[in-house]
Amino acid sequence: MSITRQSLLLTHGGVMTALQAAILHAEEIDVPQCIVLVDASGEILSSFRMDGAKYLSMHTARSKARTAASINAPTGGMAVEFGVAAGIASQGGVTHLPGGLPIRFNGRLAAAIGVGSGTGDQDFAVGRAALTAIGADSI
Description:
Blueprint: H1 12-28, E1 34-39, E2 44-49, H2 57-71, H3 80-89, E3 100-105, E4 108-116, H4 120-133
Antiparallel strand pairs: 1-2, 1-4, 3-4
Helix pairs in contact: 1-4
């Protein structure tokens, strides 16, 4: 039995590249967004609210990012009843709302991104632009 494991971390350069790509895509689709990147444990690496993005979407973007990191999967797929219960139990730390994506390299979780203020499809598109920019696994 091993007593250690290697972890994969997104550098600050990777965070900035992902953030810039997300902002650029949000501008291209004309939907101001709140964007949060977290490490694999859910700790915030970066958060940004574009001009005109909804204030409360900062909270949902953070929850989306943390949920995606926690479950190592995109958000939005859990049953609504479970998502509501998990949200209450975690005091808003977990959400079933779409817009959170894990950031993986060769299948290994390094971080996650949460995007909010648009529709679920718009949020996912902005998140996927960030993943593409840093060469992460596509989702």
